[in-house]
Amino acid sequence: MERTGRPYGELMYLMLAWDVSRCAGPGGLRITWREDTGWSHTLLAGGGAALPRGPLTALHRVYATPEAVADVADALVSRRFRGYETQWHGEWERAHQVRTVINTFRQPLG
User: Fold this and answer.
1) Which one, of 41, 96, 40, 92, lies nearest residue 66 by Cα?
2) pLDDT the model gives residue 110
3) Would you list the domain boundaries of the chain?
4) I need a labelling partner for 54 at 20 to 30 A (CA). Which of 28, 79, 84, 101 fits?
């Protein structure tokens, strides 16, 4: 029987990345979502170096609205941090459905 889930060190995650050609400034950007911690970001420098910058504090919810994630990503990619200072407190209206699917996926078979 295969075991998955948080107790076994497996978490769902999503990673979005922009290379230097898409970003204003000297490097690229990676935004990561993890089901246990929410959104964080990493600056990508030349030579494969990555500089973790920590959580995206503007997104107060693990399941932030897609519009909020897009706004924060745009502010980071374009290096226009004015938009990043906005605080997004709303949770995505489909967050409950996502949690239900994750829990169902982790149910043991048989």
Assistant:
1) 92
2) 64
3) 6-105
4) 101
